Amino acid sequence: MKNIKFSNLDRAKAVKKLASDTFDLVVIGGGITGGGIALDAASRGLKVALVEKNDFASGTSSKSTKLIHGGLRYLKQFDFWLVKEVGSERAIVHKLAPHLVLPEKMLLPLIENGSYGKWLTSIGLKVYDILAQVTGDDKRKMLEKKEALKLEPLLPKKILKGAGYYAEYRTDDARLTIENIKTSLQYGAIALNYASVKDFEYTDNQISGVSITDAISGKSFSIKTRYVISAAGPWVDELRSVNNSKKGKRLHLTKGVHLVFPKEKLPVKQSVYFDIPDGRMMFAIPRGKVTYVGTTDTNFNLDKDKVRTDLADAIYLLSAVNNMFPKINLEMGDIVSSWAGLRPLIHEEGKSASELSRKDEIFTSETGLISIAGGKLTGYRKMAERVVDRIAKKLEEEQGQILKECYTEEIPLCGNVGFKKFKHVKKYIDEIYDRLKPDGFSEYDAWFLVTNYGMQTEIILENYASLKDENLNLRMAKAELRFGIDYEMVQNPMDFFIRRTGRLYFDIESVRSLMEPILKEFKSIYKIDDIQLSAWREVLNKELKEHSDFSMDRV
């Protein structure tokens, strides 16, 4: 399938279509769940509109641990159903986007008085393999102490007893989200970011529309629809309140924080899932130029639009890393970036944040609002299937219309089309590197392009060839930006630097060096004035400070 133009430069056309047509389904929320629902529903033949109040993936879906993983720790909670479902989903999502969902070996150190003993770990990983239908080289191995230290010399020799070794997948959650949304366009869906739902419209006491405020133009309009699904993550209960249907079960928000270090400061050779002194577990994951660690799991009751990593979070994570890797001695000044996000879990009386189930739940109000919350990144496709099945049932009962069965497990995501001829992502990375090497680009640059964009790298390289900037790194960044503006609804520099490229998290110095020329490019493309440009510069500088500055005088 050819990439469909998806640009805020064409926003007026999209708004006009949303305001004039009648849809089968409006999806509220442009995170991974909403994106998955839009693709599932549109591919089954429904006329779908998706609206997001900020940028796509700007909430929870850009702030996870960025793993497509089976939830090994849920075995300890005897949540076998969840382990089976998300474990099985890993291979499916990898097949849908092999450039974006990459195999990642995970080392589970067994230490004295740790959470996992050798025998239970061996049994647990075996059960994990069976439930998740793991095959071949991905099956778990139990390692002796010597073997574990050979794989990861940074582990604590004195208390190490051995390790479990098993397979997971690493991803970029925000890019997985945008690729789902873009793929839904191939089936006729319309999606709009910076479009906030302010109210619902009703006919005979049933929802028949949503009232939208466009944050870009400031104008309001309505979308007529037969059904509405709210996949607004942490904001699900707010919309239930607007609908006067916040009854029974409610959300329980917990905060998860991650810290980012230069790879040379935390040079783990592969991902490690390790014990921390309070009985929880934590990940250390190498990625490109950096290694990131996380996560925390604490109750959150503050402003959902202002979730940040505070000093206590940073100290907690630093202490945990230094405890498992005693040769490292990381300090606050070693942190180069961070992120903090919310988990929209379902409240269970008497349970702590880390004990709450990660299962998803669906709520249906008397007026027809369907809301879905909870769940894990890995299970997004099945969550979408379950909630669209509710719509299918309603259509059959109310209209006699029979929808297709879900078949999203067969729909390759944007960026995956054409990959088969390379057989392996690494082969395509090597080819791109061969093409970029004469201009002085590194293997990292080729890896970055392919693991973010897949075969869409070809469009970016076409842009690169058409630009004339003498600074080749800047020319490539501009080529990426042009792609983001043309095909990924990039509206402002934060969309580009944070959610489309991940630079704020994984290459923060590039944000500092590229900020001014990229702002200048925005001014040229969007014809904005100096006041708007200054406002964006201020926001970017604030984001840089909030994500990387952990000095005691931090504002």
Describe the protein:
With 555 residues, the protein is an alpha+beta fold. The chain has three domains: 8-60 and 174-250 and 357-410, FAD/NAD(P)-binding domain, CATH 3.50.50; 102-170 and 252-354, D-Amino Acid Oxidase, Chain A, domain 2 (2-Layer Sandwich), CATH 3.30.9.10; 419-548, Alpha-glycerophosphate oxidase, cap domain (Helicase, Ruva Protein, domain 3). The protein is 38% helix and 22% strand. The protein has 17 helices and 18 strands. The strands form two sheets. Strands 3, 4, 5, 6, 11, 12, 13, 14, 15 and 16 form a ten-stranded mixed beta sheet that branches. Strands 1, 2, 7, 8, 9, 10, 17 and 18 form an eight-stranded mixed beta sheet that branches. Strand 9 (206-214) and strand 10 form a beta hairpin. Helix 2 runs parallel beside helix 6 (173-185), helix 3 packs across helix 4 and helix 10 crosses helix 11 (443-453). The longest helix is centred in the C-terminal third of the chain and has 20 residues, at 380-399. The termini are far apart.
How would you summarize the topology of this molecule?
Elements: H1 11-20, E1 22-28, H2 32-43, E2 48-51, E3 67-68, H3 80-96, E4 102-111, H4 118-131, E5 141-144, H5 145-151, E6 160-170, H6 173-185, E7 190-192, E8 195-203, E9 206-214, E10 220-230, H7 236-242, E11 251-262, E12 271-275, E13 281-287, E14 290-294, E15 298-299, H8 311-324, E16 337-346, E17 360-364, E18 369-374, H9 380-399, H10 425-436, H11 443-453, H12 457-466, H13 472-487, H14 493-500, H15 503-506, H16 508-526, H17 530-548
Parallel strand pairs: 1-2, 1-10, 2-7, 4-12, 10-18
Antiparallel strand pairs: 3-6, 4-6, 5-6, 8-9, 9-10, 11-14, 11-15, 11-16, 12-13, 13-14, 17-18
Helix pairs in contact: 2-6, 2-9, 3-4, 10-11, 12-13, 13-16, 16-17
